[in-house]
DNA sequence: ATGACTCAATGTTTGAGA
């Protein structure tokens, strides 16, 4: 089975690239983030024509997540239990489903904006809610993984120049401690191989030639439990999908698993 | 070449992304 995660930065704008990528890559399950559309505007029909069912959580302008599957969608969940609200709103940042014998969550972790900003506290609280949800599922026999845009670089090697990140979000001890707590539920970081260069970056800023200069970050992660991790046969970042006209600023992470 | 930001709505500017 082939499973992928991709922050598409607007599923409506990216639809032509998404459908072409689905046809060329042929994943069985895809976790999407940053749909940036209402539930009504989600392009369910063109995806169905390619054989994919979808479970989504979306409410308009920002955020929005989905799981696409062509191997079944069972036991869908469309919100993270006990997720904190921000400005009084519970944002659509997590969905789950069981697809072909694998339990997956698609997550879009809050950005945090700046250290000390209320959004940063929100990020940490949201990650704690995710940890509690993972505790319920990570210990089972079923292959289980939380895939998505975590907005955290797990190590200093996961950013292109650590000295540029002093005082910034995405690299702090508090954020990395939240990731460590998530791993302690029984999950491991499935690190993909890069197709070029040494580091498997998954995001490059649109500005200032970020991609051509490979000024990237690894912030799109696959956290799998033992049955999942032990079945992984390959994992890579599809940087080809970041090239050309009109890409997302994130590249997909693709995992092949012997299930 | 991989090329100098992009997206959606609050819409001709703003907020967010990271």
Short description:
With 259 residues, this protein is α+β, with helices and mostly antiparallel strands.
Structure description:
This is Exodeoxyribonuclease III. The record marks 250 as: Interaction with DNA substrate. Residues 4-250 form the Endonuclease/exonuclease/phosphatase domain. It is a single chain. With 259 residues, the chain is an alpha+beta fold. The protein has one domain: Deoxyribonuclease I, Chain A (4-Layer Sandwich), CATH 3.60.10. It has helices at residues 11-25, 44-49, 118-135, 173-183, 226-231; strands at 2-7, 29-33, 53-57, 65-69, 74-77, 94-99, 102-108, 144-149, 188-189, 203-204, 216-217, 220-224, 232-237, 253-257. Strand 3 and strand 4 (65-69) form a beta hairpin. Helix 3 runs parallel beside helix 4 (173-183). It is globular. It binds one DNA strand of 18 nucleotides through strand 10.
Supply the key terms:
259 residues; alpha+beta; Deoxyribonuclease I, Chain A; 6-stranded mixed sheet; 5 helices; 22% helix; globular; DNA-binding
CATH superfamily: Endonuclease/exonuclease/phosphatase
Q: With helices defined by DSSP (H or I, 4 residues minimum), what is the helix count?
A: 5
Low-confidence region ranges: none
Biggest sheet, spatial arrangement of strands = 3-4-2-1-14-13
Oligomeric state as shown: single chain
Site (Interaction with DNA substrate): 250
Family: Belongs to the DNA repair enzymes AP/ExoA family.
Pfam family, one: Exo_endo_phos
Site (Important for catalytic activity): 220
